[in-house]
Amino acid sequence: MGHMTAKDIYRELGRKIDGLTVRVPWNETLHAMLRALYSTEEADLVVRMPFGLATLPKVAEASGLPNAEVRRLLESLCDKGLVMDIWLRGEYHYTISPLIIGIFELTMMRTGANLPTREWAELFHDYLQAPGTFYAANFGHGERVSVVRTLPHEEALGTSEHVEVLDYEKAAAIVSEAKSFAIGLCSCRHEKLHAGLKSCDIPLETCSTLGSGTEYMVRRGFAREVSQSEMQDNLARSREIGLVLMADNVRRDVSFICHCCPCCCNVLLGVSKFGYPNTVVTSTFMARRDAGICSECGTCAEACPIDAITFNDEIVSHVDESVCLGCGVCAVKCPSGAMTLVKRKQRVLHPENTIERVVLQCLERGTLQNLLFPDPNNTTQAFMRAFVGAFLRLAPVKRALMGDTLRSRFLASIQRNA
């Protein structure tokens, strides 16, 4: 690839990132963003890297570069959050960061002198907010699997629902079960601040990392390590403010909790501004009003982060069940106690673990073949990527594999091989 022009290598980089868990449509804003974040050497290495996890020798073999040079470039990329290094079986494994959650969040969580944070913020804002691009590519075809899911505020649950809420649905239980913790800047609020668009007074330092992800975040300087009690205080503050709690969309080994405001959060804006309700997976609960004790004050409608509650003279209060997140912010803010969370009738899909979530995300977005055949230099794997990719893109195949009948067996097979 040494003969490529800078524009060519960034175009190839765009294609590589587009082949991960989140689709990244190409446009000139993306081109400018990639140029601002990656040197041409770094871009060239990422293009040559295998999909999925790879050790340093494997990356060096794929790139054709000496180990020392690959190590230097990987260190730079990991410091920027553009590649993640994960300690497995006695050595580091490297994986390319997707745009979400990855490049955007880790870039906007960086702190320090002489960083072009305003430039980054404006580029991310222009790209993510452009109509008909990012959200449409990832949620415009009925996709159901998002990287984040809503956590209900436990105080909002109705009496009968308390016995049905599971530990993986409780923010407090997730924190109590974790062994390590870190808090960093909210990437969305930091982006809006430097783009000149932050209108709220919500604190910047809220983003919570738990468990295995903590070591990476602290080691690379994206967050500071905190105690369990400080993490619990962080949750309590978010409840008082009325923030939406969103977590890693898995049932086991949750790695992060976001504390989201409706004016800054790009995920919530995907629902309220762009009309894609599946940008965040709902909780297994939904809001309901008790007309008998409702004071008709309208607080619930004002508090709803995605405008799912209407309030007027004709319909005192109506919850749009098709978009309600089940976050419970309306109930937490309701002065009369008329709003509560009740169990949904329809089952909500929450993947068991990260492998399941990644597989389902890639299956929906047509990129699973890249994880199944990750070697970019193997001609046989290149053929299989093209063949399997075409097969998986067939609508009946995708529907069958995402359906209840085949999904469990398909995921079990994938995990055995992983």
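the 2nd protein, sequnce then structure:
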Amino acid sequence: MDRQLILGKLSDPGFVKNILIVRQHNQLGDMLCSVPLYESLRRKFPHAKITLVASPVNYRILYSEINPFIDEILVFDKSTITGILNFLRKLRSDKYQLGIVPSTVAFSRTSHIINFLSGAPIRVGAAKINNKVNKAGYLLNVSSEFNWDVERKHQIERNLDIGRQLGCDLPENERTIKLKLSDEEINFANDFFKQNFKTNRVIGLHPGAGKIQNQWAIENFLALIKKFCAADYNEFMISSGNIDVEVTQKLSELLSEANIGHVILSGQQIRNVAACIKKLALYITNDTGVMHVAAGVDANVVSLFGPTNGFEWAPWGKNKIFIQSKTKSVNDISVEEVFKNCIELLNDIGRI
């Protein structure tokens, strides 16, 4: 189908009734940075049904009964033949006019095949990323070449670039991750803080990370917390995911030995964790998925980056600071530099 003809069809508000987005990744950060793309699609096609193909992992953070951008989640469970067949049956049951594969990190042949099998006549994605050719690009009929690394673009902008091929965009001041919390989730956080803390000067820390090279040393977190104590901050919340248990336990032991009180938040649904992070005076985190959750609830964040580019992944906003290691080793970031940035941010937001 000719590209101009395609774009002409998209200008007809009655043409696009069903939109498919294929984002079957397990990485939480990838998922959350694509939220502004979904919002731009909703604004361009306000009456269309938008379906997201996702893996069984992490989709719940995006989808709830109050999510204004995604109408349905189609879970791609490839663990059994029955699961795959049921998925394909459901995929073909809806008549999609538009299918999108927002490749911004790597190309997935599976995602492009799913998009093609959906039967959507308009299939959108990337032909080339940073000189890497999309070998499944022949399954797309709207695609472009992107040089995002050279342009130092954030992942939010990279996702929006996919939609911009269709005329979808957001105003510059609205290009942020937005996670709307339910009353139940907000009440959970209120109860948690009422039971565990006495002030609104609670400092949150996330010492774990999905990748070992992204983990700032436990001894650094301990030294940082001691500096906060000396500055009259005495309440601390340590967040922990399933993969962070060992790291969290070690930090907890060191804090107990130093007679520093702290509360560990673990074993909770990620949206409850998000509601708790939102109430913190400040959240200090490694480069990992929960960092993006913090961005989604507009928390005050200081994030630490080693090998990964902060300009590409760090939370955006006036109340957010990222610290990039000059050597690409996260442990070359000093405790003094982190503490200085934390105090400056607390002062700027009036939480000092």
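The chain has 14 helices and 13 strands. The two ends are 59 Å apart (CA to CA).
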